[in-house]
Amino acid sequence: MIFQVQSLFSRGVQDIWGLARVVRRHLSPETVGTRGAKFDRGCNDLLEPGRSDCETSSHEVGGQASGFRRELRPVAAGTGSGPEGSRLTVDIRRPWGNGAEDGSSGESRHVQSTENASPSAIIMSKVTIIGATGNVGSYAAHAISLNPHVHEILLYGREGRDALLKGITQDFIDSFAARGTDIVVNWTTNLKDAAGSDIVVITAGIPRTPGQDRLDLALGNARIIASLAQTIGVVAPDAKVLVVTNPVDVMTCVALKYSGMKPNQVFGLGTHLDSMRLKSLIASYFKVHVSEVHTRIIGEHGDSMVPLWSATTIGGIKISNLPAFSHLPVQEFISSVKCSGEVIIKNKGSTVYGPGEAIASLVKTVLGDENRILTVSTYIETEVHGIGDICIGVPARINRNGIFPVAIRIDESEVIAFRESVEKLRAITRQVLSAIET
Predict the structure, then answer these.
(1) How far apart are CA 232 and CA 210, in angstroms?
(2) I need a surface site. Which of 9, 141, 193, 388 has the fewest CB within 10 A?
(3) Peptide bond into 247 cis (omega under 30)
(4) pLDDT of the residue at 212
(5) Do 352 and 337 touch, CB atoms closer than 8 A?
(6) 3-state secondary structure of 168
(7) For 421-435, what is the HEC assignment?
(8) Catalytic positions, written as ranges
(9) Using one digit for the tens of pLDDT, what is the confidence trace for 107-124?
(10) How far apart, in whole angstroms, are the C-alpha atoms of residue 173 and residue 362?
(11) Model-level pTM?
């Protein structure tokens, strides 16, 4: 009997050690590192031949060399799944923050590797928020602080806003201490401090008032964006610039022109949030989880926006193939999306959380090198039925290398509506550029 018990015990131990060897082999540097490298290399060769995923550069500011502030942080790896299938995921959040309970003075500290840390690593990045004293800018900055790829956040505001910037910064530090987040946060009124930024988010500008059309803001905000873009192009020439200021399509074009950057470096929030609004309405109508709905709105972030019903699916099924689609209140949904911002402004003074979260998701997509296709305002040439030479909302593949419009084919009625939206924006953009150049 004793012998039998010992045999069973020995067999159990062997089974456990056998399982441990399998797990260790699955997460070993040779397996995880090689598999990840091969996968990334395969995707990059297919989509971006000859381009590197991780770019580094240096430049001079005020006669002194300045380089990207990037670090590689070891993290623990696990397996996860999502809409795009199983994949290796990482989690760098640790309960080690800037709290007074551990004697920290608020300085940046780095997560240390442990025995179980895998060779997976992510590039740590600096994000600058221009217009950080505004509602959208400050909330977006806080939402971005949840991004595991962000090491430093710089809050920029105009001169005279020092006290407010200092207060927001201290409030953030307290929040990070309570949360246990290890992020450096600084404030400035000198845009030269944006040197080394990986992403610059522009939320500065004259706010929209109730009843005011986004295009009414164009001329005043264009002058602000032109000045900011010129400086960004000099101090952070390798950064990606995300424009939020309205009218966002026109401001994206202004930023692109005056920054002197490449088209894939400058993009706007565009119809990204509009697409999410429509997605939510459709999910509610069909009583399905929002992740089951795939839809997008292209064109102007405004009255001439174009919903792509031809590209809308629910659970992988084209929406027009569902009998319930014939009863869908299409015009009511589109009117709701168009007026959503105005209704919020009328009731509470400004839109904050929706744009803030949308900004954070785009920053995460870039810094995470996710290659997601999202609808943002970007410069197009011929991607949509040969229509182009304008910054406007279209589907684009987004990663650390930038923003790349995706060529699409849509229904004829949608082409007509998109062309009208393009012509409307083209006329306004030309008028604005002509005015600020004189």
Answers:
(1) 31
(2) 9
(3) yes
(4) 67
(5) no
(6) helix
(7) HHHHHHHHHHHHHHH
(8) 301
(9) 333 333 333 434 445 688
(10) 23
(11) 0.73
Neighbours of 374 (CB within 10 A): 22
3-class secondary structure, 277: helix
DSSP letter at 215 equals G
Q: What is the pLDDT of residue 308?
A: 97
- Per the CB < 8 A criterion, the answer to whether 304 and 417 are in contact is yes
pLDDT greater than 50 at residue 152: yes
Q: How far is CA 383 from the centre of its chain?
A: 22
| pLDDT tens column, 279-295 | 999 999 999 999 999 99
Confirm if 225 and 313 have CB atoms less than 8 A apart.
no
For residue 7, how many other CB atoms are within 10 A of its CB?
10
Q: Is the dihedral of CA 418, 421, 371, 355 positive or negative?
A: negative
Predicted pLDDT at 206: 86
Q: At 324, give phi and psi (nearest 5°).
A: -65, -15
Task: For Cα atoms 131, 135, 136, give the angle at the middle one, nearest 5 degrees.
Answer: 70
pLDDT at 63: 37
Q: Is residue 171 pLDDT above 70, yes or no? A: yes
Q: Which tokens in the block code for residue 402?
A: 């930038």
Instruction: Name 109's Cβ contacts closer than 8 Å, sequence gap at least 6.
Output: 96, 98, 182
| Token pair of 123 as six digits | 């590039």
Query: What's the length of the chain?
Result: 438
Domains of the chain: 58-268 (3.40.50.720), 272-437 (3.90.110.10)
Model pLDDT, residue 61: 36
